[in-house]
Design goal:
The protein has 237 residues and is an alpha+beta fold. Helix content is 58%, strand content 12%. The chain has a 5-stranded mixed β-sheet with strand order 1-2-5-3-4.
Length: 237
């Protein structure tokens, strides 16, 4: 009987220990589940933070690149404005005398001379007054290093039909070439010059009367932009 009582006591104690172990196991399992949940949440938050950091870093780099482009564009614009003022100052006498205009057209600086100063009607021979004007211009343009120029001839809308000039294209191009040759003779570098003839197809105003047609008959010397001035500004075409 004593042995049975002792055995029952041992069984009861073992059952109690088992219940305690099960309780602890259940607690550990619940704690593990909670820890896993917290770790998963932290992991997601960490991934989200890393992703947001990457997006922010990318946006910051894009903003820096855009700012740099804008700074370069502003520097190029400042350089063009300074050059414009420099040319206007050096050629002020011709501007005041009405022999020359300096204008900005399609973002480019243009020296504009009336054909009536340079040429007689339907001719490509440069007149003495035109030679004087071109000599002054060549003297100034030679001081600007490594700048390319396009010399363009323009006519009014009155057609021309001669063996030498079947249309205004030939006349305008012939005049532009004559001006280029003259500028080279005055010391300008030929590799920096080009010639073009636009005929009547690039007027500065409609050919509605004699005064308008006179303004359209012209030679334009356009300062071509350097590569560092061709800056693509974000958000512009």
């Amino acid at each position: 009987a004593a042995k049975l009582a002792a055995r029952d006591q041992e069984l009861a104690s073992a059952k109690g220990d088992a219940k305690e172990l099960q309780r602890r196991l259940d607690g550990a399992t619940a704690e593990d589940a909670q820890l896993r949940k917290e770790l998963e949440s932290l992991g997601k938050n960490a991934d989200k933070l890393l992703q947001e950091k990457g997006l922010l870093s990318s946006a910051l780099e894009e903003a820096k690149a855009r700012l740099e482009e804008l700074r370069r564009a502003q520097a190029a614009a400042d350089a063009r404005a300074a050059l414009f003022r420099q040319l206007a100052l050096k050629l002020q006498k011709m501007i005041d005398a009405g022999e020359l205009q300096i204008v900005l057209r399609e973002g480019r600086m243009v020296l504009r001379l009336a054909n009536d100063v340079l040429f007689d009607t339907a001719k490509t021979d440069i007149k003495p007054a035109g030679m004087t004007a071109l000599k002054q211009i060549a003297g100034v343009l030679k001081t600007i290093s490594e700048r390319r120029y396009q010399v363009a001839g323009h006519t009014d809308s009155v057609p021309i039909h001669t063996p030498r000039f079947p249309s205004n294209w030939e006349l305008s191009n012939g005049r532009a070439v004559e001006v280029v040759h003259f500028l080279v003779k005055e010391g300008m570098r030929p590799e920096l010059l080009s010639a073009a003839g636009y005929g009547e197809f690039d007027p500065v105003n409609p050919n509605t009367d004699d005064a308008a047609r006179q303004r359209n008959r012209r030679i334009e010397i356009t300062l071509q932009p350097n590569i560092d001035e061709l800056v693509a500004v974000p958000g512009t075409k």
